[in-house]
Design brief:
Elements (H helix, E strand, L loop, with lengths): L1 H17 L4 H17 L7 E3 L2 E3 L6 E2 L7 E6 L2 E7 L9 H6 L9 E7 L2 E11 L2 E8 L2 E7 L4 H20 L1
Antiparallel strand pairs: 1-2, 3-4, 4-5, 5-9, 6-7, 7-8, 8-9
Helix pairs in contact: 2-4
Length: 172
């Protein structure tokens, strides 16, 4: 009986500690994951938005695009704005330069990636308590959303997959 109590206490302690992940840890893990996805082969598109083919994970909906350069992706009540600039090359820094145009902005994460003539980035900034603006880009595709700390890592991953899938589809 005593052994069972000790196991319960240990398991409870592990669960409590696992829930105490700092924003810095979430950011570091998310950026690392986004970098890995950027460096991997792009996923095959499974959706279309107008003339743009893209990868979208299950549970996400591609809304009717308002034009050929802006697409809204949703999951429940959360929205993700996809901006497309087909005139930009895979190594374009256009979206990054726009992101960094305001020198007084403070970024929690500001990571650039380049590989095989491609450029991508992830930026994160605080906009309110536990609310973050997340922007992920590769070449001429940029995805942005407002999210919570607990979702940063997973969203960085699928958003980079989506941006990479668009860039790869446009190269073909």
């Amino acid at each position: 009986m005593r052994r069972l109590g000790l196991q319960t206490i240990l398991c409870s302690s592990v669960l409590i500690l696992a829930g105490c992940v700092s924003p810095e840890d979430d950011l570091a893990e998310g950026v690392s994951t986004a970098r890995a996805v950027f460096e991997q082969e792009a996923p095959e598109p499974n959706e279309a938005a107008g003339d743009t083919e893209l990868y979208v994970p299950g549970g996400y909906e591609v809304e009717q695009p308002s034009d050929d350069h802006n697409v809204l992706i949703t999951r429940g009540s959360q929205a993700f704005a996809l901006s497309l600039n087909p005139n930009e090359a895979p190594d374009s820094t256009f979206f990054y330069d726009l992101q960094k145009a305001s020198p007084e902005e403070s970024w929690l994460a500001d990571e650039k990636f380049s590989q095989h003539g491609r450029f991508g980035f992830v930026t994160v900034r605080t906009i309110a308590e536990d609310r973050y603006e997340l922007v992920v880009s590769s070449g001429g595709a940029k995805l942005s959303t407002i999210t919570e700390q607990s979702a940063l890592r997973n969203q960085m991953e699928w958003m980079m997959k989506t941006a990479r899938s668009i860039e790869a589809a446009q190269e073909e």
